[in-house]
Amino acid sequence: MLVVVTLVAALGWIFSKEALNGFPPLMFMGLRFLIAGLILAVPGYRALRRLRAHEWRTSAVVGLVFGAAMSFWITGLSQSSALGEGAFINSLSVVMVPLISMLLFAEKPALSVWLALPVAIAGLALLSLQHGFNPAPGQMYFLASALLFSLMLILNGRAASRIPALALSSIQLVVVGLMACVLSLLLEDLPQQSGVAMWVWLGLSITIGTSARFLLQTYAQGLTTPSHAAVIMILEPVWTALLASVWFDEHMSAIQITGCSLILASLLINRWQAVSGWLLRR
């Protein structure tokens, strides 16, 4: 099921990129997450009713960080023609999590984190130095989103230990949607044209790329150990790169492939304890 989740997450990149042909980026994110959050609120209604005031506030704070991360992500997606590369840059949030935890909560990172960090930096450098030191705007937005995603993952992990997952996810998505809608009203113009295709891609993003993904991921994570889940979720950027090559005929240069491979290696090194444990059980 988690392998399917990673594939659905990768499809979300494709749906979003297609939807941006008709929607302004922030408007698309606002509609996508607001409607998806309301959909999740239906099965999560009872859990939402039982939440106390401080749990609502905690969930909303996580949602605000999530919203900031998604705003950078969708802006990067709108300015980038390399989805596979963007997915690997975005996946660096996994490596950043222990470092942010160390800075904010004085948690000591494992040795694997320090081994993964230079590999990740080398991979990112190769992607950024293709034409001299001149990172593309899309790359910088993806990197900023990865940093915020790492903070969101930390806060979300702490919140999930005491708040029901479905209620937490619903509140987060609604907050992200509201935040993006407000930013869109302030910063973007309404679409000049409205076609059927843009609404179809929005619908797929809402139902499959967001609601179905979160429901399936929440259920599947309850059927396995966190270490197994951590290893499997690394597949998302790989699927994204493969789907982008098929759907958009996107090709990577040798230096891009090397950079993405180093980032993937850093993810495996960072999760080496989980990876080795999974291999031993096989």
Model description:
The chain has one domain. The model has no long low-confidence stretch (mean pLDDT 86). With 282 residues, it is mostly helical. It has 14 helices and no strands. The radius of gyration is 18 Å and the shape is globular.
Give the helices and strands as they follow along the chain. Answer: HHHHHHHHHHHHHH
Report helical residue fraction.
over 70%
Percent of residues in β-strands: under 5%
Number of strands: 0
Helix segment tally: 14
The low-pLDDT segments are none
**Domain module count:** 1
Describe the largest sheet: none
Distance between the termini: 18 Å
Structural class: mainly alpha
Radius of gyration: 18 Å
